[in-house]
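Key idea: predict the complex, not the pieces.
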Amino acid sequence: MTLLQKLIPKNHQLIVAIPWLWLAIFFVLPFLFILKISLSEPQLAMPPYQDWIREFEDGLLTITLNFGNYQLMFEDDLYLQALLGSLKVAGISTLLCILTGYPIAYAITRAPLQFRMPFLMLIILPFWTSFLLRVYAWIGILKDNGLLNQLLMSTGIIDSPLQILHTPAAVYIGVVYSYLPFFVLPLYATLVRLDDTLLEAAADLGARPLRQFLTITLPQSVPGIAAGAMLVFIPVMGEFVIPDLLGGPGTLMLGKLLWTEFFNNKDWPVASSLAAILLVILIVPFVLLRHFEQKASEEER
Amino acid sequence: MRDFISRNPLLFVFLIAGYAFLYLPIISLIVYSFNESRLVTVWSGFSTKWYGELMNNGPLLNAAWLSVKIGALNATIAVILGTLAALALVRFRKSRGHGTLGVMVTAPLVMPEIIIGLSLLLFFIALEDLIGWPAGRGQTTILIAHATFSMAYVTVIVQSRLAHMDPSIEEAALDLGARPARVFFTITLPMIFPALAAGWLLAFTLSLDDLVIASFVSGPGSTTLPMVVYSSVRLGVSPQINALASLIIALVSIAVLVASVIMYRSEKVRQDA
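Result:
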């Protein structure tokens, strides 16, 4: 496409510049305001924070930075608990997604060619319907007189209803349910590109299917697993809707705490500090995601 | 297919179990929207009364209309921005800003909504302070916020279509003396049209579905559908919400079906050609 590039230098700069500027202004720049507000003091007004820079009557400018919000994060156990809660939920549900998503992605790649696209579409399809409403569906299934308890009781497996809704188990179910497609898609893309000749060679040399899988397919699919895992882990770290609707008082997570600080306590500086900390934590997994995505797409070329 | 099942019975079981897990909750939503009882999960007879009540729920209908308006506008903006970004990423690898654009386009896909929402709200307030725009928060701010994350999804879809497109057709047109703009509108655009349609649809549903970001950047008088649904759901299950969910699922299924037929046909035309 060098020809196209030479012919329209102006347009081509514009093509890069328009989305670049949009994202720089409305996505990157706003992060700076999180940092700014996280260093300010709360006040009872709208907006409920004080500016660092204040001009007094005699024209004197003062800058007051307030690190108290960050100090609070380390002193109050609540914030540490929320961080650990988020890490735990994100970690365990990522693992659960790997365990349930891998067999699904692998099965689709093994299916006959003409069935692969429909099978894949069936994985993506739920993603197009409302996330909020799909999480809502689980309330009806998991609550005390919900479908699952009705089913278990009518088959005589249990005598009294199990409390599942408002427990960590409900959060894990909700997260795996909502984020499974994000894991399956990149993994499928990696698996489907794997070279079959290696497997054939291994088979010719007498390796059993399980050994073939463990020594050839699994190691080669690591970039896909890693990219998919990060696509689950990163957003779940800040998830609000699932712990709020399915979790109970015991499920403390950063996203939910941030929401409470912001909307209920109207403490914008503390909410901003939480967001800043979450942002810093997510840098490492994000770099990993970029790394594995590029690795996967390089193999394609 | 039969061969696949007999050779890999375990894999097939996994696949079926996976689909059951994904679809049973959705099916249960639809089934119980026709339940007579208010108790949602206790079946007491067939009824469509909840659909009737839904149609008389004024605040919900207003919110739904606002969400549809924002969703359609958002999808249009997102398709334009996302297509430009995809062109920039696939076609102009050596141009300035290519690397940063790639990072900036991936980040909104995974960034927790709560961070996007909070940061944009703080930004809008500071901006209003500085230049007087946007005046207050409402439809415009929701639209900007939605377009920002939706365009990332559109970019991914269009990018993969562009990357798998045969460049020789465009090159041939250029060799024959067509101007680049003409090549884009008569060759590139029709070829990536299915991706644009899919992207538009996805951006529309993402916007229609967003609770967290809209809650941060909306203002008085701009309550979107997910915000109404959320405040109702917090109080417990409600058959009206089941009815609403069924309607949305029906609409999305029809839209996706139409989109796949379009894609299938254009794919066929491409293969036949």
